[in-house]
Give the backbone structure.
Amino acid sequence: MRQLTGLDAQFLALETRRQYGHVGGMAVLDPSTTPTGRLELADVHNLIAGRLPLLPPFRWRLKQVPLDLDYPYWIDDPDFDLEYHVRELALAPPPTDAKLAEQVARIFSRPLDRSRPLWEVYLIHGLRDRRVALLTKIHHSVIDGMSGAEILGVLLDLTPEGREPPPPLEQKGERDPGELEMLGRALLGTPRYFERALGALPSTLPNLEEAPILRELPGAKTLGAVSGRLVRALRRRPSRVLERSNLTPPRTSFNGRVSAHRRFAFGQLSLDAVKAIKNEHGSTVNDVVVALCAGAVRRWLEEHEELPDQPLVAQMPVSVRTEEQQGTYGNRIGMLAVPVFTDEADPVQRLRRTHEALKAAKDLHKALPAQLLQDATQFIPPAVFARASRVTMSLAATRRPIWNLVISNVPGPQFPLYCAGARMEANYPVSVITDGMGLNITVMSYCGHLDFGIVADREQMRDVWKLTDWLAESLAELQPQPREEAVKQA
């Protein structure tokens, strides 16, 4: 048995009939590189079955503690049924990106069955040019971005021929402990809560302003600010580069209560074009990505006549996973709060401001304890953890948002990868939205391009597809002009 951390459990606690905690990706595959020229459900099934020894989370089933007296546990499912998790469907002709995106949105609008391991894989037929899509869906309590990439690395190969399979899996699952046993385990572990809270105190108290769960509690910001100033004075550290008080998210129409339904859109941009802009302006690829998102969201806000005169604030996940923690799965992440300069009309100036703000945010992140997000969860007793997490998000939906949206940029391999012999042409992320934060833009780089996956609430953003066009327009606005054209304009 493996116990979830407080951060892992938070992704479970946030789930309601409208909010879901699963993430995933939609890989577009070309089956012409397989021996048969096709990719069938049996091929995907056999691939996963052969690599299960390298994929322990695929067999983990959730085991709750009675009365939520402690965080849940993972057990190896004694009744694991691979066929339940691997499925297929086909789009109705004619094939369109809109039909594919709608199918993905419907699949992601259904919760995962907590009585089974928390993942599903869908093989989707009927795409253009005989392509197929492989949609993965796995709970965020199991993986973060880095551990998700590790799972993807197990399923994908460098050549169509694949690799030698690992030795067959001998383990047949763990004994399923009864309710009384789990209750006894929780009662015996009660002292661990106080031990965890006491151990997290030194890192969390001076940084309450940066702890999403705790900073909304009455008096938390004042206590955090006073504690932080005291600690910095005692340690003779300079004041923070980017104070939380400088980032006040305005309210937009995608910062309310989310529905149970989602919209998904996807698109692709040239990585070389982004790198050319990065080199021209002395910024980073991530700076350009955030600036492109700012430009696209600005257009959406303008069209809906709700452009605020101050920047939006994005949640940006960052990995704090160490080399020693690779292969441990679960969540090892921090959260940056960064301004998104939708208030800036000039695209070049928008990129410059983004570069400066992200540098300041990274400096702040380096100054904070790496395990701050994990430590912050230790202060809420497990018995009230789920309710406290949902209340925090509910307040964000009805009062002031914590963040306006999520922007996440995940670096990926720049060489071709293959799934059961089929060449992967693109890998579009599909992520999560919550009350108060109904827009998520996640991008993954792969093989010379950036694959954007945009998730939004169906009721809040009915025209989410427009964002993909505006991302391309924002890229065009920033592209360096040819020398001859620049001379003519001068």
